[in-house]
Amino acid sequence: MMSPNRLHLDTTVQLSRIVYSAEETLAFDAELAGVEEVSTTSLVYREFLRTIISDIEYLHTNTDELIAADSRGFISLGRLSQLLGAARNRYSQRSIRRLHLVIGALTNQFARTRVRKNRVLRKLERMAQAYCRAFFVYTDRTGSAKEVIFLQGLEPPGHLPEESRRSSGRSTLRHAARPFPPRPLFPEGAATFLEARESQVTKVEQEMSAAPSKGGRDDKLLKFLQRLKANDGSFDFTGRLPKYRQKCWYLGDLLIAMECPDGAAVYSTDRAFPILCKALGLAHHMGYRSPAPLGSSESSAT
Which of 218, 214, 162 is nearest to 185 (CA)? Predict the structure, then answer.
């Protein structure tokens, strides 16, 4: 199947093309190289920060606080796997998988298994910064870096997260004295955005309800949409969204699809998108599928 000329990247694709193996990254990049226009959204970036960047911060913080260096300042890289084992009750299986990839990418940068602790911490910081820079660029067919169009329809004026502002191609990941950005909140403009598109939300709810449970139906999204309804059956986004701040992320895939530019196809490996795109009248691009998506708005509650 030929790739569309315009692609709108969701969180699964952004995570997979940046964080997965070198072979997978090359495959995604080769496909995007033939695309005229690539876009993504501020919500995808927020999910990116609260999944993979949060995972890296977890390793950074716990390496710093829980792994004691020897008298020469060295630690064993094997201790990172022990930290991962300790995280199993805290994180979902997708988070654990992402942490495995982070540890693998980190250890590949060292020729020895005993490394100075401060070098490990700096490598983790630089890894997060490199991932954030990669989020905003892709390589075109000439081999040149091209900027991903960054859509901000859910952000009220002046409320765009500081960590997403860029200068000279760099992500301003560093905040004051801390090397990682604050964990992002759900965008404040989501309620207004959804109110203006209530008929589309209703159509998505109808299509999702009619889908079989094993056919891509997003039950978490369906249940949450029910919670957002007033007694008369209409949606009350402004009044009810603030009451469910953590569960708001279940709306992630819906909002990402709704921000897709005219004429573009949504590029996602997430199983819910065929139904979402059908309901919204959007083209859905499966493209180069990784063996298993690394994350999505469904799993980003971790």
Answer: 162
* Cα-Cα-Cα-Cα dihedral sign, residues 268, 91, 163, 228: positive
Q: Check if the beta carbon of residue 31 is closer than 8 Å to that of residue 143.
A: no
> Can you say how many angstroms the Cα of residue 241 is from the centroid of all Cα atoms in its chain?
21
Per DSSP, what are the bridge partners of residue 166? Answer: 171
Given a contact cutoff of 8 angstroms between Cβ atoms, the answer to whether 253 and 298 are in contact is yes
Residue partners of 172: CB distance under 8 A and separation at least 6: 162, 163, 165, 166
Residue whose structure tokens are 């997979």 = 16
What is the token pair recorded at 262? 């005219």
pLDDT tens string 65-112: 888 999 999 999 988 888 877 766 666 778 888 888 999 999 999 999
User: 88-94 long-range CB contacts below 8 Å, 24 or more apart?
Assistant: 91/55, 91/58, 91/302, 92/299, 92/302, 94/293, 94/294, 94/295, 94/299, 94/302
Structure tokens at 276: 């979402």
pTM greater than 0.85: yes
Provide the b/e sequence for 182-204 (b: ≥16 CB within 10 Å): eebebbebbbebbeebeebbeeb
Which amino acid belongs to residue 76? S
Q: What are phi and psi of 85, to 5 degrees?
A: -60, -35
